[in-house]
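Researcher: Next sequence.
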Amino acid sequence: MDAGDIEPGRFETRVSETVRRWLRAALPMLWVIHLRASLFSRMSLRARVMALAAILLAPTLTLIFVLLESTNRDIERQFLRESNTTHAIAVGRLDQVVQQALANLSALSESPQIVPADPLGSARVMRTFYFGQTELLAVFAADERGEIFSSSHNLNAVQTVNLGTQPYFASVVGHAQPSVVAPMHDPVSNQPAVLVAVPMRNERGTTTGMLAMTISVFRLYDVMEQFLSQSGDRLVITAAGQPIVSSGWHSGGDEARWLTRLNAQPGGAAGAPYVQRFHDSLLGPEKLVIGGPVAGTPFQLFLIRENGPVPLVP
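Model: Next structure:
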């Protein structure tokens, strides 16, 4: 017998199973038809027409409802995909700003003119660098002991920073690792700032000190504001549980407290990115919040989507 042949008795078994399944499905339908007929016989003509219309429309309305629910889910998924993409691009923009700052400062640290033996010459080099950067507040250099020997601005003001006690100084000079620090205040202008620091090396590659610059947080604000200039969304940058800067955010203690609570959410300041709905009566309707750390920096970046997907209403 070929492999494609039906074994004896299998055909009859399939037929009987098919008949049984049809009967199991048909009997309830026949019972419903019987009940309808008995009820129809006692109804007026108008009631019969309305009942028949309801019977015929019920499957259609059910199908419409199912389709709308499916469409709403598709809209929500698309909104989440767009939100995740927006957050990822924003993280990339912020990382680009930090990496560019590190690259520029690293190039400056290779200058042979920045040495403790010539603080005035070092200051002139750093001053020239200062005028060529956007939103740069100050540049200063320190030796391997943490003593600041030159600055692009008021040296006395910069020397108020006790570098020897700062964890980032030990990281930069002791381990020759670049460092990004926030939040902090610029020692010259006392403005909120982000500090970027890199090691200085001699011609033999030995670490001889640290070169640092402070960047105004408004530099980050400009990047975020340009990024979201065409939408109603908000980007909030935080560090160490404190809000650093936000696009489209109003100043005030209430917002700061709300951001502190936001950082406390799972995946916020703690680590992994998260996506969740967040509702706060202070700020109005429910919002979609996507947040997480920016790798290699002290920052967490939160995208707050004000304009959620508009569901279709049956």
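Model: Helices lie at 10-40, 45-109, 119-131, 155-158, 167-175, 217-227, 253-263. The first strand starts at residue 136 and ends at 143.
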